[in-house]
Amino acid sequence: MNIINVIDNSNVPAWGNQMKYIVAHYLGVVGQNNRIDSGGYGAHYYIYWDGTIYQAASHDAVLWQVGTAGYYTQKHPEANNYNCIGIEMCPKCDGNSGDADDPKWYFTTETQEACIQLVKHLMSELGIAADHVLRHYDIVNKHCPAPYVNNNRYRTSWTWDEFKAKLAGGSASPSITTNTTGGNKYMFNTDQVMMGSNNNSVLLLEEILGSRGYYEGALDKNFGPGLRDAVMKYQHLRNMAEDGICGPATWADLIAL
């Protein structure tokens, strides 16, 4: 799985996402988009028809994605904008794309398979259980994502139950393969890590940044302010997005060097 970092936090309306739920959306129009608009609406991730995954916002970002907007009715007892990580799946439609209820909305197989990989990774990284993976429709009475609300298996779309069943196959994390100068290949299973993370990927990050003079703290697997500052310094010097998060793009750059 490859996640392309296009994070732009300039329009994020609020911070402090508690990251308790993962929510599946569909874009609502026939097309592909990986940008957050000026109002901060949208999702943290976007998945194109070919399965390409873009991360558009940091996990800590609160986006206006599952609220009632004074129009919809709240259905879920707890899930809201402040505790949900959103995934927009880019759909296709053979019918009336101006009507969310049209039965001919569908997802490509590539989009769905990429979403499964991403959700498994997020479940593993953020400690989110499968019963906390929801449709937008499960939170408010909005017909979203249409293919998984219709559940009619139109063309290549799965039903929502089929989607959830595919999550039972275990967790998945991005992996990066790199060649050493001696020709041997090594595989690093590198989770996306950020403030509050505590795992072996953090330890690897501490070791790499420490050996290069960016980080002077303890090798304790705890992602704290000192490590975040070290990541941001590295990202600045490498002309990368300075979000203080070590995601796929930063990992790839670190290991390539």
Write down the Rg: 19 Å
Strand line-up of the largest beta sheet: 1-5-4-7-3-10
Mean pLDDT: 87
Q: What structural class do helix, strand and pairing data support?
A: alpha/beta
Per DSSP E runs of 2 or more residues, the count of β-strands stands at 12
Give me the strand/helix succession: EEEEEEEEEHEHHHEEHHH
| Portion in helices | 25-40%
The stretches of 5 or more residues where confidence is low (pLDDT under 50) are: 170-188
Characterize the biggest β-sheet: 6 strands, mixed
Shape: elongated
End-to-end Cα distance, whole Å, is 21 Å
Number of helices: 7
Oligomer: single chain
Strand composition percent: 15-25%
Description:
With 257 residues, this protein is an alpha/beta fold. It has helices at 109-126, 136-139, 146-150, 160-166, 200-211, 225-237, 248-256; strands spanning 3-5, 14-15, 21-26, 45-47, 53-55, 61-62, 84-89, 92-93, 105-106, 133-135, 175-179, 185-189. The protein starts with a strand and ends with a helix. The protein has seven helices and twelve strands. The protein has a six-stranded mixed β-sheet. It has a two-stranded antiparallel ribbon with strand order 2-6.
